Amino acid sequence: MSDFLWGVSTSAFQIEGAFDVGGRGPSVWDGFTPVHDNQNASVACDHYHRWREDVALMAQLGVNAYRFSIAWPRIQPSGKGPVNAEGLDFYDRLVDALVDIGIAPVVTLYHWDTPLELEAEGGWLNRDIADRFADYTALVADRLADRVKLWIPVNEPAMVTLQGYAIGEHAPGKTLLFDALPTAHHLNLAHGRAVEVLRSHHAQAVGTANNHTPAWPVGPNDVAAAEAYGEIHNWLYADPMLSGRYPDAVAELLPIADGDLATIHQPLDFYGVNYYNPTRLKAPSEGNPLPFELVEIDEYERTGFGWPIVPAGLTEMITTLRDRHPDLPPVHVTESGCSFPEGLRDAERISYLDGHLKAAQAADVSGYFVWSLLDNFEWEAGYSQRFGLVEVDYETQVRTPRDSFHWYRKVISGE
């Protein structure tokens, strides 16, 4: 497994802080409410100032790949126009530092921090955002394409559509239900446009990172409900990227123009799976406007977030992907991790990661990225959930590796 990617993942908004530094513009998340205890990410892990310390932690850990995101508002404060050189310089230094110590940079171009001005113009409901995203991609690729090993245009488009626009749990907090579906098409279109731009800049490898969940019916009468959920969560994104077509049930609800599916359906060098848990569904009760209802999965142990711990679901999901898309490129698990209460003795996290890593290896993946290197700002949950291999004291910014950090180091080194 000499070519196996042993990695960790983070995202810009969740760790960088430094909202008012270096010419960064506001993002859709900056003032989003409600967030746990009215917390915000204005400081977070202060990675913008402490990135050298975090790179040193990765060197100590022994990973050979680091997946991080670039903050669109740092590159283009309004989401359009000329590059903010100071913002791009920050990532240029980070990439150089990683390459110098043999850690492959894995760049996500969009991890949910839409520039606020673009959201005011409709955000992902506005088709024009795909063109703006292509422009932004070109600015980043001009500087970094010669050194970045893997590129991921859009992280988890399903979560942007479902949580951000359909039910309002995430920024921008809209509750449009099925009227949110145009955002899915525009996210997919932005992915395709970005792949085209990255290819034109001779990018080394381009893929994606989609959130996937096995959709389990409660019983025989609930199969249609599970299939409907699976189409919206999984196949609304994977199918057009991998086969150039949408599931029939949703295609007629999307604003597809001539040539769009060809743009979305770009050859990919890898396919990223972000997996946390399965989802159980039943047929909707009377008055429910959706074709499914979610049901608790209560026969498994749970993480601090209350998510059921089901490593076999990861193997199941990758197997299902390969069955549905026989030409699936090499698979990386681009996010896998869990939250548990603070503390350095985190045997629960070790057990979780050990089970999911074995499940990933059983599915013959080519890379595994732990979410996350650091405790961080966990979106609407604020600082209440801790996912890090490294504990962060948010008052002092002191970083302390947990037992799981040392466990992962030994796994990587083969001890």
From TrEMBL:
Family matches, as Gene3D superfamilies: Glycosidases
UniProt KW keywords: Carbohydrate metabolism, Cellulose degradation, Glycosidase, Hydrolase, Polysaccharide degradation
PROSITE patterns cross-referenced by the UniProt entry: GLYCOSYL_HYDROL_F1_2 (PS00653)
Pfam families: Glyco_hydro_1 (PF00232)
Catalytic activity, EC: 3.2.1.21
Catalytic activity annotation: Hydrolysis of terminal, non-reducing beta-D-glucosyl residues with release of beta-D-glucose
SUPFAM superfamilies the UniProt entry points to: (Trans)glycosidases
Assigned protein family: Belongs to the glycosyl hydrolase 1 family.
PANTHER family per the UniProt record, alphabetical: GLYCOSYL HYDROLASE, LP05116P
Identification of the protein by name: Beta-glucosidase
Species annotation: Lentzea cavernae
